[in-house]
Amino acid sequence: MSGRLYLVPTPLDHGCAVQSPLDDVLPLRTLRVAAALTHWISENAKSTRAFLKRVDACVPLAQPIQALHISELPRAVHKKGDHAGVAPFDARPLLAPALQGTDIGLISEAGMPAVADPGSSVVRAAHALGLEVVPLVGPVSPLLALAASGLGGQHFAFVGYLPQASEARARRIHELEARALRGGQTQLFIETPYRNAALLRALLQTLQPGTRLAVSHGLTLDGGATRSATVRDWRTDAEAHAFAGDAPAIFAIGA
Amino acid sequence: MSGRLYLVPTPLDHGCAVQSPLDDVLPLRTLRVAAALTHWISENAKSTRAFLKRVDACVPLAQPIQALHISELPRAVHKKGDHAGVAPFDARPLLAPALQGTDIGLISEAGMPAVADPGSSVVRAAHALGLEVVPLVGPVSPLLALAASGLGGQHFAFVGYLPQASEARARRIHELEARALRGGQTQLFIETPYRNAALLRALLQTLQPGTRLAVSHGLTLDGGATRSATVRDWRTDAEAHAFAGDAPAIFAIGA
After folding, report:
1. What is the mean pLDDT of chain A?
2. A24 with B26: Cβ contact below 8 A
3. What is the pLDDT of residues A49-84, one digit of tens each?
4. How far is A150 from chain B (nearest CA, A)?
5. Helix/strand/coil (H/E/C) assignment for every residue in A150-196
6. Which of residues 56-115 of B touch A (CB under 8 A)?
7. What is the rounded CA–CA span in Å between residue A176 and residue A198?
8. Is the ipTM of this complex over 0.90?
9. How confident is the model at residue B83 (pLDDT cuts 50, 70, 90)?
10. What domains appear along chain B, each with residue ranges and CATH number?
11. Chain A nearest CA to B151, separation (Å)
């Protein structure tokens, strides 16, 4: 019988100075499965080992960390105009142990693997090989941000990064605003953290006064917050213009 | 100091005969916050009490269930052509206890509140009143389905229900396929469970052979599964045509 591919989510505190206990954000089943796995596919073996050390503090690992097999994914390929672009690749060789009956974990740097990261090629390969794919529960930042925004959650899209060039960015903002207002589809997007302030400025210049804008940072973390208001209200609150600072943030616009 | 609005996710086993322990799918922090809350806003007080009974088995409740305050949301208003349509309403009166300093929990029937349910009006009202909104970690079925699909997770949209009339539904399927193939945006949608088979048939008749289609059911539950393949492969596998049965399912199409 073939092994399964488990999609193992991780906390959103990657790179943060203060990290809370894993069981604050991961259910026991996720921790138990992670503790039992001996084979992993990851973006970065070093941070996977750091994560597993934290798992071990909650649920003892089946094998010492040094004895685990961790395969790294190919590095992200940055396509022009698309930060998060990763060329699809044939990940079937990485899954060979599963064909011998060994369960494998897929893990990303933060959050749910195969959402906004290169892991989907691995999941696709697992389906091609007829392996069972099992997603485990953990934090998923775009959906936490959507819920916390108070914007319509019945229809929504996550559109990644906006263009950096100011004219192209303004055009894209108008396009997303039209989809949010006329199409009723809340639009979520992200930015490289040090450009948060520039993006927020562009949004406040470009959007209509009545459009709602929400920004979340530090989701699931101490000191995290969400601000959601009309563009009119954002404009008149000078303090809000530095809201997310240079923390990883998620932006949303809606009716 | 004002109270907070906590967004408390629930398991995806609402209405299932067999339910697993809550800590399988909810992290300890979510359980601890839920156990401490005395005021709730919910779609259905009866199922909120049933959920809190399960919480109590993991983390003892601060107050007996009979002593809790549970306010119900207005019933969903089914707008023509949109099953999940809920008219926005002024939810500020429901949040009065928070202005006196009491934390309030918002909860839905299954999964994350304010995603694909009427809770967003409450979240919006909380922002209008200047309350802190704190989303807690738990299962979110559209994102579990996206991760398990192996379809591109860098750009995606959740579009709710498709039209029921066959011509309108076929037009909508073509439109979603174009967004998935030309726009590179994975499209996720749902159906009333007893219509799963009819929707799957329509998808297999309408989509191009090379388009990828994924269907997930029973996410986070025993016996749950995800099938992801090209339309060509779905068509040649007669068994697959009854894949989701009449279980709640999530459909995805992508390149």
Report:
1. 92
2. no
3. 999 999 999 999 999 999 999 999 987 654 444 444
4. 4
5. CCCCCCEEEEEECCCCHHHHHHHHHHHHHHHHCCCCEEEEECCHHHH
6. 84-86, 112-115
7. 17
8. yes
9. very low
10. 5-135 (3.40.1010.10), 141-254 (3.30.950.10)
11. 6
